[in-house]
Design goal:
By secondary structure, the protein is an alpha/beta fold. The chain is built from 16 helices and 16 strands. It has a seven-stranded mixed sheet with strand order 4-12-11-10-7-5-6, with helices on both faces. A four-stranded mixed sheet has the order 1-2-3-15. Bound molecules: 4'-deoxy-4'-aminopyridoxal-5'-phosphate.
Length: 459
């Protein structure tokens, strides 16, 4: 039987891991964990150790690993049709999924364009928005606005609408930069201010930029309610309401990137619902298949669709991926939607969230914790520490306690799958505090030979 060490050594030779300084894997600063199987919220390695997947494997997993209902749906589809080109052909899973997603937006976003990952869904929204304006006789409307600290993916187009210093430094010359507008980050509230005040201030900043640039701007892109990769920045829904009104006034599209926050993460099925608005484009991925298979979708309105409907091929939307609308992935997504309705997930999550928040009280009141915050099924807190390698230390201490948590710089967050039982929830809360105390009490030398200048940015 192969052991952890066998897989670890082979992986280090052949696999270039994402978002990772590979040297840290080699020298042990960031241990690589070979996983043999998953079951429910747990991941198991080849030596029999287990880890509670408290960040849903990069925010994708909603209903646990090896979920019997999603497994069954995929198996059933596998015997009918594994894949077919979606240009010139169609199939039941993609039709049913499109109808159901559209119905979930009350029909306001009635047209679904598919890809295989979140970045591609964002690229599609950006291209569609600019192409819409071109088809309307406004080719000059081709720039984008994004929030300070935004993150929308890692392809060149999506890096252009992201505000992540490390990536700008490395890939800036390859990017076409968006204009950044103020983030409504509720932590900016000064004494006597509320999150709503901050939202209003950020919207006023947006208006100044729109007033000056709207004739050359196609769209504003936002992560509704929670800006994820920058450190689980949370903000008041009023910002979305104000931004929607401003986009209408200045004839600019609103793109909602709900790749992380969609599918119940913020307490409603879609985050933008909490502002009682609809975007012009809605990007979904990750939880869409509960992390089972790579699938993403960009939904848009009849008005956008109609602007492309013509005899001229150049007025049509020019975009295609080999795996667009993959039937297996669409069937997994249909099974996910079934679980949402059959198990009343949104309601059930509400009581889970209250319970878990109570269990996290020792963290919320910890003397070194700042800005303990929650939105729906996302919990985050900032640690007051000067340790340059805090995130690596915390990650290791948590793993040593069977808990998989991956801080963003000095921000620790929880984004668990929606299936934790009471024992698992209690274990997660207790061991997170124990890991934090172990890190803060340490006086061992830095894990890194050089300073980790990217400590704030890597998701
Ligand atoms: N947008 C947001 C808000 C995300 O969180 C992510 C992924 N973390 C993406 C886009 C990119 O998705 P992917 O990694 O699937 O390309």
């Amino acid at each position: 039987m192969a052991t952890n060490m066998d897989w670890l050594n082979r992986s280090l030779k052949a696999v270039w891991h994402p978002c990772t300084q590979m040297k840290w894997h080699e020298d042990g600063a960031l241990p690589l964990a070979p996983i043999a199987r998953g079951q429910g919220a747990w991941l198991y390695d080849f030596d029999g150790r287990r880890y509670l997947d408290a960040i849903g494997s990069w925010w994708v997993n909603l209903f646990g690993h090896a979920n019997p209902r999603i497994n069954a749906a995929i198996r059933d589809q596998l015997d009918r049709l594994e894949h077919v080109i979606l240009a010139g052909f169609t199939h039941a899973p993609v039709v049913e999924l499109s109808e159901r997603l559209s119905a979930l937006t009350s029909g306001t976003l009635g047209h679904c364009f598919y890809a295989s990952d979140g970045s591609s869904a964002v690229e599609i929204a950006l291209k569609m928005s600019a192409h819409y304006w071109r088809n309307q006789g406004h080719p000059e409307k081709n720039r984008f606005l994004c929030l300070t600290g935004s993150y929308h993916g890692e392809t060149l187009g999506t890096l252009g609408v992201s505000d992540v210093e490390l990536y700008k430094e490395a890939y800036g010359p390859l990017m076409r930069h968006a204009i950044t507008v103020p983030s409504p980050d509720a932590r900016q509230a000064v004494e006597g201010e509320t999150a709503l005040d901050v939202a209003r201030r950020a919207a006023a900043g947006l208006e100044i930029v729109l007033a000056e640039h709207h004739t050359s701007v196609a769209a504003l892109i936002v992560e509704p309610l929670v800006q994820g990769a920058v450190g689980m920045v949370m903000y008041d829904p009023a910002y979305l309401r104000l931004a929607r009104a401003l986009c209408n006034r200045y004839q600019v599209h609103l793109i909602a990137d709900e790749i992380m926050v969609g599918f119940g993460r913020t307490g409603t099925l879609f985050a933008h619902e909490q502002a009682s608005i609809r975007p012009d484009f809605l990007c979904l991925s990750k939880g869409l298949t509960s992390g089972y298979l790579p699938l993403s979708v960009t939904l848009t309105t009849d008005a956008v669709y109609a602007a492309f409907y013509d005899d001229a091929v150049t007025r049509g939307f020019l975009h295609s991926h080999s795996f667009t609308g993959n039937p297996l992935a669409c069937r997994a997504a249909l099974a996910v939607l079934d679980i949402f309705t059959e198990d009343h997930i949104i309601d059930r999550n509400r009581s889970f969230a209250e319970r878990f928040t109570g269990m996290l009280a020792p963290l919320a009141h910890h003397p070194r914790v700042r800005h303990f915050r929650r939105r729906g099924m996302i919990w985050a807190l900032d640690i007051d520490t000067d340790l340059p390698d805090f995130r690596l230390r915390f990650y290791r201490e948590a793993l040593a306690r069977e808990v998989f948590l991956r801080p963003l710089g000095t921000t620790v967050y929880f984004m668990p799958p929606y299936i934790l039982d009471n024992d698992e929830t209690a274990l997660l809360a207790e061991r997170a505090v124990a890991a934090l105390n172990a890190v803060l009490e340490t006086d061992s030398p830095s894990l890194l030979e050089k300073e980790d200048s990217g400590s704030n940015v890597v998701k």
